[in-house]
Amino acid sequence: MDTFELLRPLIRKTESKIILFVCDGLGGLPMNGRTELETARKRAMDELANRSELGQLVPVIPGISPGSGPGHLGLFGYDPVRYPIGRGVLSALGVQFDIRPGDLAVRLNFATLDAEGKVSDRRAGRLPTEENQRILKALRTMRLPGAELFLETEKEYRAVLVLRAQGLSDALSDSDPQQTGVPPLPVRALRPEAEKSARLLQAFAEQAREALRGESRANGVLLRGTAVYQTLPTFEEVYGLDAAAIATYPMYRGLGRLVGMTVYPVEGSLEEEARELERVWNRHTFFFLHFKYTDSTGEDGDFAAKVKRIEEADRALPRLLALKPDVLAITGDHSTPSLLKSHSWHPIPLLIHSPYVRSKKVSGFGETECAAGTLGTLQSKDLMPLLLAHAGKLGKFGA
Amino acid sequence: MDTFELLRPLIRKTESKIILFVCDGLGGLPMNGRTELETARKRAMDELANRSELGQLVPVIPGISPGSGPGHLGLFGYDPVRYPIGRGVLSALGVQFDIRPGDLAVRLNFATLDAEGKVSDRRAGRLPTEENQRILKALRTMRLPGAELFLETEKEYRAVLVLRAQGLSDALSDSDPQQTGVPPLPVRALRPEAEKSARLLQAFAEQAREALRGESRANGVLLRGTAVYQTLPTFEEVYGLDAAAIATYPMYRGLGRLVGMTVYPVEGSLEEEARELERVWNRHTFFFLHFKYTDSTGEDGDFAAKVKRIEEADRALPRLLALKPDVLAITGDHSTPSLLKSHSWHPIPLLIHSPYVRSKKVSGFGETECAAGTLGTLQSKDLMPLLLAHAGKLGKFGA
């Protein structure tokens, strides 16, 4: 019996409300003795930590540094090892493409090929987004026998290709050679059932090459991250939650949509995201609020900038608390230590606030206090049942 | 390989003795800054905590509040998600009925039906136990074609019905409508193989209705919690332990019997339970000692009373220690915070005392110290192998 089967008969649909505030890449590593979170001046979080339960989340299993997809799926309660999602599907969701079950989604990078057909720039000179849009318009006239074809601009040199047909498979190799000075690789089927998909993508790559002959920078395409879209059981189905996702970046909206959340896209600051949360507060019982910049500053290796972004998150907290959620959790999808300039495997700080917490006196919300917190060390996929319990949304298991 | 398979070749049968002292519903939540356990004046436990390992147990998975059945099965090392037990079986075990594999056990509530046959009181005016016994005596003369029928009084309006026949199934709906003003529901088969069982129970309900026509209060029966008894591998089989259960409440005796423990029923106080433990000390290698009232006071929401019951448990502790057990563990089957007046999902404080502990200086035995204890946060099902190890009953795994 998996967790969803265990939960199903226990779920109580109630009006209580849960906020899951995800500060992307929240966890860090000490530089000069303190992590980014421990360095930030964040009065609201530190005060709340004394009235909350602290713990830490292992995103997948110890040692595994997840991407945004598995990081968030874990937070949403979907074991990321059981529910892998391909990068292509994430990209398609991210650009708001209306992807359907069975579609094959592929990440497409425009690249520069030299006269011999070898890749000279894998990003086509960081092609401007407007160029990308212009070129895609032309490529959309292409036809592939036996499949519908969709193309959407992502950003700069990145686009998404979606094929729609019966019997597609994503057991395919990438055409992106991951280096310059060699030609794009042929797309190969890694299992017999992917032969058709491989033929379609290879035909696409060749036609595109032909169509782009006149381009100076973007005269080739590299394909990678092929993924067939398989929908997941929704938050409504597995938790009885009517969930909202508030996010500024397409990928996180896509992750919310994947599990059936209503997506409220915000273009702007965290303050504007908080305003959107207030606006839709009466419509939902679960709110996934995503803040991107704690991750991007960590990826840049900019400790001070990450500290500032955490302080920005702290300034939003009183607005969230003013809504009087029954349960509020603050955590991340993974750690992004400035020291590593990348996602890492380190557990993620977690704070759960509700009327039913075992709190203890702490110096604040930080990695060291969380590691010694009353919640102990959990896996990300354990979070959702805990939040449901704190919100009074779970009945007793067995007699 | 599951845990039992892993353990099997490692088990050493030795004379060393383990006491598992279960204070039901032990864990709590702070009110005025401290939990019940942290408030209690309990010199023996607090002193022992400084010579023991502390930790906390998650009874099932994070967020799940278990009933007594899954709570205890977990403590006994049987993954409660893999070994579900029906309420009917728990009740039959609880009244010391000699249930056999394949028997179908059903909880029977006496109810009051009005002139139209609608339920007017689901508990027959909280029928006195003596009335229950008198009425059952009459019902025992009933005969069902194709099945043996047993009836046992539980308490007040509650009784247990057991059917014995070939091919019984518990894929059945309840006849208890869970509300008044409507007639009892027919028992329906939820799968084809349960048709025979449904017919037998429906015939029973109709005959009982007829037989109870003269009763004023208990003139109907409601059936629920149907469960076929499937024995579990015994403590002897999986751990090589000759186990004793000492408990005042039928259900906990039943849980001990389910895993092959010799049951010593005690009617009386914890002091009398401790005396029984002393009496049978030479006969067994494992002792499950159950103390009920830390749970019932929590369920009543009576913080002060729960504190007093914990102090009562503390007074029994020196007698247990005087027996010089090789290993003594103190924990609960789940938390029952007075604040929630119910079983909860919060981890359960755990103390393990043996000569081989990593102890540290602590203020006492309490939730906060246990959350920071050297054992960390475990699942209840992890406890038994730990106790076996501390008792020197486990050999090395692998070379």
Description:
The structure is a homodimer of 399-residue chains. The first copy, chain A, is an alpha/beta fold and 399 residues long. In chain A, the strands form two sheets. The first copy, chain A, has an eight-stranded mixed beta sheet with strand order 9-8-10-1-11-12-2-13, sandwiched between helices. In chain A, strands 3, 4, 5, 6 and 7 form a five-stranded antiparallel beta sheet that branches. Chain A has helices spanning 3-7, 36-39, 43-49, 68-75, 87-94, 129-139, 195-211, 235-239, 250-258, 270-279, 293-299, 303-322, 367-371, 383-390; strands at 18-23, 53-58, 104-113, 119-121, 148-155, 158-164, 220-228, 243-247, 262-265, 286-291, 327-331, 348-353, 377-379. In chain A, helix 10 (270-279) runs parallel beside helix 12 and helix 11 runs antiparallel to helix 12 (303-322). In chain A, strand 8 (243-247), helix 9 and strand 9 (262-265) form a beta-alpha-beta unit. The A-B interface holds A 1, 3, 6, 10, 356-360, 372-378, 382-389, 394-399 and B 29-30, 35, 56, 60-70, 80-82, 84-85, 87, 90, 225, 337, 339-340, 342-347, 367-368, 371-372, 376-377.
Nearest-integer average pLDDT of chain A: 95
How many strand segments of chain A?
13
CATH fold annotation of the largest domain in chain A: Alkaline Phosphatase, subunit A
Order of helices and strands of chain A: HEHHEHHEEHEEHEHEHEHEHHEEHEH
Helix content of chain A: 25-40%
Q: What best-fitting shape of chain A do the alpha-carbon axes yield? A: globular
Record the strand order, biggest sheet of chain A: 9-8-10-1-11-12-2-13
Fourth-tier CATH superfamily name of the largest domain in chain A? Alkaline Phosphatase, subunit A
CATH class of the largest domain in chain A: Alpha Beta
Low-confidence stretches of chain A: none
Largest sheet of chain A: 8 strands, mixed
- Structural class estimated from helices and strands of chain A: alpha/beta
What oligomeric state best describes the polypeptide chains here?
A: homodimer
The CATH architecture of the largest domain in chain A comes to 3-Layer(aba) Sandwich
